[in-house]
Design goal:
The protein has 345 residues and is mainly alpha-helical. It is built from 13 helices and three strands; from the N terminus they run ααααααααβββααααα.
Length: 345
């Protein structure tokens, strides 16, 4: 029985309670009917949670298997774009796993709310049968109202995978391309020795610029766009980390020169390079229609660049605008995934 069917049953029982005029068989029958419906509901919730748990485990295994196959595919043909079946399989598996996790969490939240209501009703039902009619009616109404409310919050009952597919419809290839770029970038960077503190510290400023240019070249290959120059500029403070102007990425000279520890290298230098490289990708997508899989997103970027807010004008507007959110998310995911890869070794 679905949540909507249980809601209907409890609503019908509430109508019967409203028609009570005294005790006797009518009240006893309603009490028994409520207990019967509750027993079915509790059993179904447990079964549904076990089913969702199994689905989540299967989806997770599917994702792990897809990732292993994708890694083998990527190592054998590292320069391929993400249209391959292995990349699509990984994203599909990821979507199924997130949907299964979401469905499991929803069922668990519902059960945590419903079980105490059922327990309280079982505990007080017999006592109320011998008490006053108003007290019994009030308790029944309160119990049935809670059950209808909690079950109603769980509607509409749509399969989790269908919800995920609907969420990403029209945006599937864009998200796949985004995830592919993040994966390939993190995979490359996690093995790039020159950005590790013990090596970075030994490099001169000129050598560091050369390393950053090599990184930009590799990112441009992954993003399938032209490589742009990376240059250093004096900036007012470390908080001014960098910017993209024309076809050039400018980084804060002091941050590149003075960065020493892992945190400074990753956050002041590498994250900024990745962030600004994503802006280059956005601009390339605007200038070459059809390059990005998502025309709507490109239109949003174009409108944003034409109405761009600098951090000096209004920091909150700057922080929230689409091109900055996208670039910030992109760079952040690569850094996060690098840490995940590092923990595997």
């Amino acid at each position: 029985m679905s949540s909507s069917a249980h809601v209907k049953s409890f609503a019908q029982l509430a109508d019967l309670v409203a028609g009570l005029r005294g005790f006797g068989e009518a009240l006893a029958q309603i009490m028994q009917a409520v207990l019967h419906e509750m027993a079915h509901l509790a059993e179904e919730l447990w079964e549904r949670e076990r089913h969702c748990q199994r689905e989540s485990e299967l989806a997770q295994e599917e994702l792990r298997r897809g990732q292993r196959e994708f890694e083998l595919h990527s190592r054998s043909e590292p320069r391929l774009r993400p249209e391959g079946e292995a990349a699509a399989a990984v994203w599909q598996a990821k979507m199924h796993w997130h949907a299964a996790q979401a469905e499991l969490a929803k069922v668990q939240r519902l059960r945590v709310k419903i079980v105490p209501v059922i327990a309280a009703f079982k505990q007080h039902a017999r006592q109320l049968s011998g008490g006053s009619l108003p007290a019994a009616v009030a308790f029944l109404n309160q119990t049935l109202a809670k059950l209808q409310l909690y079950l109603g919050e769980a509607l509409p009952e749509q399969n989790g995978v269908e919800q995920a597919e609907e969420k990403y419809s029209g945006n599937f290839w864009y998200q796949l391309d985004f995830d592919f770029q993040v994966y390939k970038a993190a995979e490359f960077l996690s093995h790039f020795e020159e950005i590790k503190p013990q090596v970075w510290l030994t490099l001169s400023l000129e050598q560091r610029v050369h390393v950053l240019q090599r990184l930009e070249y590799q990112m441009s290959i992954i993003q399938n766009r032209p490589t742009v120059p990376v240059e250093l500029r004096e900036m007012p403070s470390p908080n001014f980390k960098g910017y993209t102007y024309g076809q050039t990425i400018y980084l804060n000279l002091a941050n590149v020169r003075d960065s020493a520890g892992e945190e400074a290298i990753l956050n002041l230098v590498l994250r900024t390079l990745l962030h600004e490289g994503r802006h280059v990708y956005q601009i390339h997508a605007i200038l070459h229609l059809g390059f990005s899989p998502d025309a709507k997103m490109v239109a949003i970027w174009e409108h944003n660049f034409k109405n761009y807010h600098t951090a000096v004008d209004d920091f909150e507007d700057y922080w929230r605008q689409p091109v900055e959110v996208d670039a910030r998310t992109y760079a952040g995911k690569i850094i996060d995934y690098m840490f995940e890869k590092a923990q595997e070794y």
